[in-house]
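ok so i was messing around last nite and threw this chain in just to see what happens. nothing serious, just curious
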Amino acid sequence: MADHHEQAAMRRALEAAREAVEKALPNPRVGCVLLDAHGQVVAVGAHRGAGTSHAEADALARAGDRARGTTAVVTLEPCNHTGRTGPCSEALIAAGVTRVVYGAEDPNPVAAGGADRLRGAGVEVEGGLLAAEAERLNVAWTHAVRTGRPFVTWKFAATLDGRSAAADGTSRWISGPDARLDVQRLRAACDAILVGTGTVRVDDPRLTLRDDEDAPLPYAVQPTRVVMGESVVPAEARVRDDEAPFLHLETRDVGTALAALAAQEIRHVWLEGGPRLAGAFIAAGAVDEVVAYLAPALLGAGATALSGTGIDTIADQVRLDVTDVARVGPDLRLTARPRTAALTDEDRS
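result:
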């Protein structure tokens, strides 16, 4: 049973994972703390993205010879495969670590098995410490690995009467500047931003992370800009510029599009686009999270945020569980998940 030193170390490992990088996609965020026999911290490590050291290797490198005889407290089950780096299970064994405590089990069948490998080498292993918190650290990554398709967050802005544009088609701006900057922060945590060809034709968006003055924001990696649809994306469209990667999925089929993105190791999609594209994703059961910015305004007429879902009766409505409500400037940001997605009590709080 994990003692209070190990519980405190797990919380520190979770914090280290969060602080190390905003996103590690297509990899998970992971933190690791090494404790000596008296429960004192020897070293703290974290993963910072594809191609960098895994959290365990980072902590072991910082500890050096002091790693021998320690307990490794890791947010995710140590991996047992060779990718860009070697197996963390083998690194822990070679360093002389005698006990490993981890939070969430690794859902990736390619990398899983680290706990069994460690036990086979005589290392004491305990799993499940603060497992719910550890899983929430990598919700999108875990979903993508388990289901084989990216986690999809649908974002929209609307007035209190549900309008995303006025009757004459104008829509800039429904939400205020604080909300728009908040959108950029959430976009940055994803590895792809997806719209339809209609949005490109009408709005000619850049789909890059920018501030309200149209200046690029200082994020290390811009998400891939994805346009979905069979229409041509003009060569002069701003989405094709060199500020970020661009991908055109020439299909109207949601499943085909998500399979293509999964093949590109895209784990988290930020869905914007128009109401019909959102409706197609809802109809396909492919929206995993909704982020709605509600402006304290009324239009009375105009486009709604969602259409084409195929829902004709109240019995078929898509019910959502609200996971967060926050005031962002004068607007409200509401985050929710379809009830088909399992939620813990912590998720609902």
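not much to say yet. Residues 4-20 form the longest helix (17 residues).
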